[in-house]
Write a structure and sequence with these properties.
Blueprint lengths: L1 E3 L6 H9 L4 E7 L3 E5 L10 E3 L4 E9 L6 E9 L11 E11 L5 H4 L4 E8 L2 E2 L6 E2 H16 L6 E7 L4 E7 L8 H12 L5 H11 L2 E5 L13 E2 L17
Parallel strand pairs: 1-2, 11-14, 12-13
Antiparallel strand pairs: 2-3, 3-4, 4-8, 5-6, 6-7, 7-8, 9-10, 11-12
């Protein structure tokens, strides 16, 4: 039995765990809020949880995700319990999802948890391999540090969070305009700088152990509007794929 959290449970991740004979139950928690919801045995697909309505009140609004210019259903939370670490009113956590009423005969449903949040994903944080990094920490590395070290300019280095065969992969795309620098040197420099960020040391260890970070010498991906963003954190189906000539590691 696998209780999973920290990043979105995608169909590929669920399939990999179930193929190994496991049962998968996503949970949803936020440091500033505590527990938000947990899946029951009836939730066999998707990234869905029962909303713990005695702990938090939740609503949503449509907005443009700042790192992708894609419209998302942004979740807002208000703390209800006197034991919450913070008092929050309609606070956005850079997460998106759909809140809806459900009829579920599980124990959660019987005690009154009659709403679920489904298709939970982050649109403003990098959450690959269960590690959470703020975009504001990572972007300066991509736009300032790496161009200074290896050449190029802002827009030549792009971090893409994408789904691999069984786990999330983090791809650092480097434009050939930067002068085709050595991919391994870029990777080591990026990880070294990442260690200086909040949570960066643990993230670096996890990414290295899981071999979850790769460097690709190729043009950065563009949005449908032609923009090149330093971070792509949402589904790659919304991204225009340019030709990828070059070498990778």
């Amino acid at each position: 039995m696998f209780s999973v959290g920290g990043e979105a449970l995608t169909p590929a991740k669920r399939a990999a765990l179930e193929a190994a004979g496991g049962e998968v139950y996503p949970f949803y928690a936020i440091v500033e809020l505590g527990p938000v919801g947990y899946a029951c045995s009836r939730m066999k697909t998707g990234n869905s949880v029962h909303l713990f309505e005695d702990l938090v009140a939740a609503t949503s609004r449509k907005r443009l995700a700042p790192l992708s210019q894609t419209e998302v259903e942004s979740l807002l939370y208000t703390t209800l319990t006197p034991f919450a670490s913070r008092v929050l009113i309609n606070a956005e956590m850079d997460d998106s999802g759909t809140i809806e009423q459900i009829n579920c005969d599980c124990l959660y449903g019987q005690i009154g948890y009659g709403r679920q949040i489904r298709d939970i994903a982050s649109y403003g944080k990098l959450t690959g391999l269960g590690m959470t990094l703020a975009g504001t920490d990572v972007v300066p590395i991509l736009e300032e540090v790496l161009p200074k070290l290896f050449g190029g300019s802002p827009g030549d280095y792009q971090l893409v969070e994408e789904e691999g065969a069984a786990q999330t992969m983090i791809t650092l795309r480097v434009s050939p305009r930067a002068g085709l620098p050595d991919a391994d040197s870029i990777r080591q420099s990026f990880l070294s700088e990442l260690k200086q960020c909040y949570g960066g040391t643990l993230t670096t260890r996890v990414w290295e152990h899981a071999e979850g970070l790769r460097v690709v010498i190729a043009d950065p991906l563009r949005t449908p509007a032609g923009k090149v963003l330093s971070l792509h954190l949402l589904s790659r189906s919304a991204i225009t794929r340019p030709s990828t000539k070059g070498r990778s590691e």
